[in-house]
Amino acid sequence: MKNIQISPSILSADFSQLGTEIKKLEEGGADMIHVDVMDGHFVPNLTIGPPVIKALRKHCSLKFDVHLMISPVHKYIKAYADAGADIITIHPEATQSLGESIKTIKDLNKKVGVSLNPESKIDLITEFLDQIDLVLIMSVNPGFGGQKFMPEVLDKIKQLKKIQQEKNLNFDIEIDGGINFENSKIAIDAGANILVSGTTVFKSNDGDIKKNINLLKLK
Fold first, then answer.
1. Are 118 and 151 in contact (CB under 8 A)?
2. What order of strands is seen across the sheet that includes strand 172-176?
3. What is the C-alpha separation between 88 and 193, in angstroms, rounded?
4. Residues recognised as catalytic
5. Rounded CA gap, 163 and 171, in Å?
6. How far is it, in rounded angstroms, from Cα 186 to Cα 177?
7. Is the dihedral of CA 122, 110, 39, 72 positive or negative?
8. What is the pTM of this model?
9. Are 163 and 126 spatial neighbours (Cβ–Cβ below 8 Å)?
10. Cβ atoms < 10 Å from Cβ of 181
11. Over pLDDT 70: what percentage of the chain?
């Protein structure tokens, strides 16, 4: 099994202190920073754009794990790459050609992530798995933080893990949505090796980020 990594979502951070909050995550042992980008169209909420990511980049040396919940996504990929994203994750439903969008991300020398919503089928991405660096399984319906974890998506992770082993592929399996100390173990046992968590990292144990990250890693 790959080492378990924690990608805290800054959606749960204090937005008035984002630079400071990101420094706290780095000092607390986060493996990367998860940035949720929402457009109010593909998902029912609005968050941040490339200028904010560019401004935050100077505060942190960790990888920026940027999840684009925007549609149409293709024309915005370069802007997020230029702003400082290291991993760019898109949804198959948000692009006219997933293959073209994957190629664009790779041509920009960024890692490619593809995300599946709870109702999205693995079939949408099966033929592209040998070109993908990361598959993000959403365990809530995207758009808002603080939602309850949907355990039914774990079957999708198990299917992905099986395909990965059978075809000897090397993509990461990331899970995002309601991840806490109770369900992190079942997500890891199913095959996830990157956990996205916002509320639990920032709010649990009186905001002890280091302790919360270690607990999520089952340390």
1. no
2. 5-8, 194-197, 172-176, 134-138, 111-116, 87-90, 63-69, 32-38
3. 17
4. 36, 176
5. 11
6. 13
7. negative
8. 0.96
9. yes
10. 14
11. 98
pLDDT-derived band at 51, boundaries 50, 70, 90: very high
Q: Which domains does the chain have, with CATH numbers?
A: 5-216 (3.20.20.70)
CB-CB contact of 56 with 67 (8 Å): no
d(CA 17, CA 77): 26
Centroid of chain to Cα 63: 11
> CA 143 to CA 98: how far, in whole Å?
21
Do 29 and 3 contact (CB within 8 A), yes or no? no
Contact 24, 213 (CB under 8 A): no
Residues 6+ apart with CB under 8 A from 7: 30, 31, 32, 33, 34, 65, 174, 194, 195, 196, 197
d(CA 165, CA 137): 18
Where are the extended beta strands (E) located within 5-62?
5-8, 32-38
- Written as one letter, the residue type at 202 is F
**pLDDT for position 145:** 64
Residues in the chain, how many? 219
pLDDT at 108: 98
Distance CA 215, CA 201 (A): 9
Under 8 Å between Cβ of 145 and 178: no
